[in-house]
Design goal:
With 450 residues, this protein is of the alpha+beta class. The chain is built from 16 helices and eleven strands. The strands form three sheets. Strands 3, 4, 5, 6 and 10 form a five-stranded antiparallel β-sheet that branches. β3 and β4 form a beta hairpin. α6 (163-178) packs antiparallel against α9 and α11 packs antiparallel against α12 (302-314). The longest helix is centred in the C-terminal third of the chain and has 35 residues, at 411-445. The chain is globular and about 75 Å long.
Length: 450
């Protein structure tokens, strides 16, 4: 593509990108950019390998129908919704995405039969169409933290409140690995206001709905709603070891060093009254209110000063009741502990947006997040369609067999996905498949025992 042709094409795309149908869209997102993205950059082969879990090879234990029983859901322009899409191979998947140009791709479970043929099975009268395998998934959205962040609200997010998502990643990831023994965990930026987690170990994929609910409930601490003044109740003589670890290793320090100053949660009467409502002792709240209503000049951060006063008051000799001492921890948990969409995790048939999709409201690509370096993740610096389009234009044309993403900002996220997640996962799948196959062979050779 020469320079004149490139500039004209880009101008047309920008004009087209201002409005699609009756909906205004950001400059970073339009159909033409999306078509180019699907043509040049979307990692079809990697997604296929991931969703196949080793069943795309020639090993005698491979289930050749496995990938074809996976549900994909496409949301097209103007909210046209196509569920129960299925594909037998990577070429079918790639051709369908390029043809339909979905604004969003969701991934569902692996069913007992090809989901595209579900109606035929339904008419047979046999209830054979049922989900049989699905990653254990978690969905965490910053909008669920609106009562504890004052910099943004709704879908807006900034670098002051995004660390709440970082804390969620640290707490959940550590527990999934240390408490449940899972190894193959993928964290993905949702593209706008949250994070998604895919737990891909074989034992996680085969959990029943009841078992998924039990895992989700293990993480459940935040149980309030917008009408509850006290949303966290830490009952019992001692905290669960998981909660103790989360508090001591992540939550307490984050609350005191980051959240207090960034969100100014004690800076006004309206804000500190919300915290006083969490303390079930009128004498203690009256004492604190009296201190805070008397304004004294101080060079120290008022949020830090008032938090120390609250801790000293509740943990002093005057208030020895365990419930009051526990209030300090409950306040920290209320402000910082991960708030999960429990229903997404509990049921096998939930859809979740595919990694490397593009969010139509922001133009951001849904890139993986390294949980070991999640503090460094900046949602405002994630590649957009416009940015990728410009990077491709700068590089000019390349040979067909070259990886286009290597010369764009998508190169690093795809490399991370491959090396840190996909390769170890496939190695594990191969070992599990070989072990299972050998066990079956051994069993078939063994004489009957009574």
């Amino acid at each position: 593509m020469d320079r004149d042709e490139s500039e004209n094409g880009r101008e047309d795309m920008l004009i087209d990108g201002q409005k699609q149908g009756n909906v205004s869209v950001p400059r970073e997102f339009n159909v033409n950019y999306l078509k180019l993205y699907y043509a040049k950059l979307f990692p079809y082969a990697d997604m296929f390998k991931w969703m196949s879990y080793g069943n795309d090879g020639k090993h005698p234990a491979c289930d050749q129908s496995y990938f074809g029983r996976r549900e994909f859901s496409f949301t097209l322009e103007n909210d046209i919704y196509l569920r129960y899409q299925s594909f037998n191979n990577v070429l079918q998947l790639e051709n369908s995405i390029k043809e339909k140009c979905p604004f969003k791709i969701d991934i569902g479970p692996v069913y007992s039969v090809d989901p595209a043929k579900k109606n035929a099975y339904a008419q047979s009268g046999d209830n054979v169409f049922t989900p049989v395998e699905r990653e254990l998934i978690f969905d965490i959205d910053i909008t669920d933290y609106d009562d504890v962040r004052y910099c943004c609200s709704g879908a807006d997010v900034c670098l002051e409140c995004w660390p709440l998502m970082t804390v969620a990643i640290k707490v959940i990831d550590t527990a999934l690995r240390d408490d449940f023994g899972f190894n193959h965990i993928l964290w993905v930026y949702s593209g706008r206001r949250g994070v998604h987690c895919w737990v891909c170990d074989g034992k996680a994929r085969r959990l029943t709905n009841e078992q998924r609910a039990a895992v989700a409930d293990y993480f459940r601490v935040y149980k309030g709603n917008e009408n509850s003044s006290k949303k966290v109740s830490l009952t019992g003589p001692a905290l669960h070891p998981f909660l103790v670890r989360s508090y001591s290793e992540v939550l307490e320090r984050f609350f005191e060093t980051k959240l207090l100053p960034s969100q100014n949660i004690f800076s006004t009467e309206d804000r500190y009254e919300k915290i006083l409502e969490m303390i079930p002792d009128k004498t203690a709240t009256s004492e604190l209110r009296g201190k805070w209503q008397t304004k004294k000049g101080s060079k120290e951060d008022i949020n830090v000063v008032r938090w120390e006063q609250l801790k000293n008051t509740l943990q002093s000799g005057k208030y020895k009741a365990q419930g009051l001492r526990r209030c300090v921890e409950e306040i920290v948990f209320s402000f910082t502990y991960p708030r999960l969409d429990m229903e997404v995790s509990r049921h096998m048939n939930h859809l979740l947006k595919a990694p490397f999709c593009v969010h139509p409201k922001t133009g951001h690509v849904c890139v993986p997040i390294d949980p070991n370096h999640c503090d460094e993740f900046d949602p405002t610096a994630v590649p957009t369609l416009l940015q990728l389009f410009e990077e491709l234009n700068i590089g000019g044309t390349r040979a067909e067999d070259d990886n286009e993403w290597d010369r764009t900002s998508l190169g690093q996220p795809i490399s991370f996905f491959r090396s840190s997640f996909l390769q170890p996962l496939l190695k594990s799948c191969k070992e599990e498949m070989e072990s299972s196959y050998k066990a079956k062979l051994q069993q078939s050779k063994s004489p009957l025992s009574w």
